[in-house]
């Protein structure tokens, strides 16, 4: 009886389906009348319906005959019936595919758009001369021979002497000895293990020893550790700690969450971890950092000097500078200088910088030029003990009997070191990695040195006044002796412009490997940076809105805790063994898990804040119910996948959040469960969309996942609701067509039209560009800019480097290649081309790389750049480094090329043949370009990697490296934990209207390139509603700005400030608003941008809309510790190019 029910039920279902299908066909034909239907299409449909009717009649006949035989209860018959029903379903499906296959929307042809008028001070930096300087690093590189003679005791220097009697009781050398401990928040141990095993004891000891004697000093930097320690202290110990901070015994230098890497880091993340640390130390202790301290980052950037300067720091110290540069600077007593930005016209960014002269920051290399002697003054190496002196002369405890001799030996080193500097003040660091973790060590260092100081005090004729002193006390002494003010230029000090990359510590050991090591985490870092910025902004808007309107429901406290955790986890990774990829495998895993936590926190915050802000009635908002962001990363080492939106005929909402402060037109892509879709914009208008197959591999497409793309229009800092629904006959939706040049193509029946072609050159295009590809390799050959007709050679190729032989080989830090790059043989790879009205792409499957070049047919900046994506896998290789090269016809003279420093500024490089390949590799955090008089070619990158431009016209980007051995810099392992790693670039050809200024040492992106870069990294956040959930009424469009900001003003952050740092994390009333005015090269016209140039004028009253209503704005220093008084809301504020401005906003 049951079987009867099933069969009759099924039959009834088939009949209903068929009837519904027929009805829909006729309805849609009627509805379609408004569309342009030609007679042929109508005829086609009638023919199809007729054929359907015939087929359906046959099916029903068959079903009837089977059912008649059912009285015998035969299961074989039932199975047969099932098959018939399946076939019927399948054939209907095939018919439907026929409908969509035939449906191709004609691509829209977009116009280029008007040119953005640029003038005045917007252009002034690019057009003006280089800033004046006494030492220019490019010139130093041109002049230096980079010979490496043996300098004796100071191996990389020379035999230093000083005039006898130069220092005496009337002309004292003021020596500041500064105990320090370098504590890496993760390297060969995990962050928390370092804390519990070493850093906590260090800080406990420091507090005890400083409190016991007011003459003692100590310097410390990493707030990520300090905050853990602080939270472990009793109130009385906190009071004790506040006392040694207040009286100047304990100096917190830089005050960042970490001592950040300076090569791979982006300035947004540098600023963020600086604010987190500065805010923390100031809130808990009242301390404000005055000096910068960077003894271990592997090369140094002027961006750091700028950020420290604008945070109120008066002097800074750096250590890892190329040994030949150190020697060169030391020769002319130029190891201390005012570091000036390459774009700074009036020297307002000048920051006093001290370069440590010798090989390392350990004691043997800090008291003077002779490590064998200096080692004897590292009293932690006294025997018996944990440490010793490799020069085999151990330290002696200072006694009355030996103090005269020992002091004489030491001050000889001091005087030699002092002769490398201009002033009569001398700085002597006294420490090493994780030192002072045992009380005995502290005792030995503090007591023995005090004995020497006391002896020198009693013997002024020796000419040395020595004491424990902080870095700030040392800088103050320089100013006191020169009669200058802290922060100003001491008398006769030189000005230096340029950077300190690429670092070498000896021989040809250039540290350019770490620009690329662990690229998976480098990519993940940038993804979290963009998510954190979106989360910060969306959270601030939602929290402010809630308080303003006295609402409740938005979980402010809970999300603020997630936000602070995300800031700190991302901040931790900016450490110089984090983003650099120079930690042990299990430490990389630990960082990865923290990054994943940060990523997930940000996604939760964005989802909740954006959905709260989108509710038409805010009381309808419920946490974690209606929406879910579209990205998922399951594990710390897995690729991001996308949520599949389950579409039905009922419209489903997707919220799109643009965190940028100008309107944005861009193609967005979502993953959906059905290929046939209709998309409606905020006004309910149906817009063109395209569905692409989702590929499981080169040949197999998913049957239940598809990629849906459409062009969005989003207001400045706004949220727009789009609606998508399943429409079998949507005339606005196109299915991509697929062409295979090699490879079999999908074996299963496809909903998409698939064709196979023989090798021949082929192309894809959009409204603005045509990209041509090789028919045999599928790799890009040229790009033609349609508006000018200019065709640019742009040959993409892949290359590999091996590791050279011998004892010293490439590792996590070092790049020591076995010669020039070798072309990677690509053979005849599978080439798969997809074309459609909105997105066209070429995928090539070669050994180690899945390589995709994509063109978006969009009126926005994405329509005028070539998107390049690689999925790299070198997990099965040994000692191999992979690079992608783009060779163009740009004639960059003298092989000059530009790369960015921290995404903040561009600096010029030249290829030096006197240097090895590894010395000509530079960090690529954001952008590189080459140019001639007519054309500029830029590579914009969505992740930090290494870059070189070894031949005219080419840019080479390092993609991944796997290295089997340690490179002897303390890590104790190679780099073998490679992952399948994504990386993404935009390629941009621009036409110069005026030739570049040849002598210029800095570069500036065009306005267009700036916007294109922002669009690449600051992605549109896509937040679809959860399926089968009834969503309350939503605002269809919502912008939080009254007036968009000009093109060259970037909202770096809108950061909610924390109320207090003792106890529970809560949001305070104020927000930090950070604006950065970008520096622009006006010699490259920029058209089609949806923003204006206002010469840097911004009216703060106009900035946010009335629903948020700013009450008061106060200008402050970069990390918000030095207030500069209220700023008028009504007057125009003028921002200078390149400058970052911080404000505290009261709502
Ligand atoms: Zn370190």
Automatic annotation (TrEMBL):
What taxonomic classification does the UniProt entry list for its organism? Eukaryota, Metazoa, Spiralia, Lophotrochozoa, Mollusca
Q: What catalytic activity does the UniProt entry give for this protein? A: N(4)-{beta-D-GlcNAc-(1->2)-alpha-D-Man-(1->3)-[alpha-D-Man-(1->3)-[alpha-D-Man-(1->6)]-alpha-D-Man-(1->6)]-beta-D-Man-(1->4)-beta-D-GlcNAc-(1->4)-beta-D-GlcNAc}-L-asparaginyl-[protein] + 2 H2O = 2 alpha-D-mannopyranose + an N(4)-{beta-D-GlcNAc-(1->2)-alpha-D-Man-(1->3)-[alpha-D-Man-(1->6)]-beta-D-Man-(1->4)-beta-D-GlcNAc-(1->4)-beta-D-GlcNAc}-L-asparaginyl-[protein]
Q: Which organism is it from?
A: Magallana gigas (Pacific oyster)
Could you list this entry's UniProt keywords, alphabetically sorted.
Answer: Disulfide bond, Glycosidase, Golgi apparatus, Hydrolase, Membrane, Metal-binding, Signal-anchor, Transmembrane, Transmembrane helix, Zinc
**GO CC annotation: what is one?**
Golgi membrane
What is the annotated role of this protein in its UniProt record?
Catalyzes the first committed step in the biosynthesis of complex N-glycans. It controls conversion of high mannose to complex N-glycans; the final hydrolytic step in the N-glycan maturation pathway.
Q: Name one GO biological process term.
A: mannose metabolic process
Is this entry keyworded Disulfide bond?
A: yes
Subcellular location, principal: Golgi
Give GO MF terms, alphabetically: carbohydrate binding; mannosyl-oligosaccharide 1,3-1,6-alpha-mannosidase activity; metal ion binding
Protein name per UniProt: Alpha-mannosidase
Q: What is its EC number?
A: 3.2.1.-
Q: How does it sit in the membrane?
A: Single-pass type II membrane protein
Query: Pathway it acts in?
Result: Protein modification; protein glycosylation
- SUPFAM superfamilies named in the record: Families 57/38 glycoside transferase middle domain, Galactose mutarotase-like, Glycoside hydrolase/deacetylase
| Similarity comment text for this entry | Belongs to the glycosyl hydrolase 38 family.
Instruction: Give the top-rank taxon of the lineage listed in the UniProt record for this protein.
Output: Eukaryota
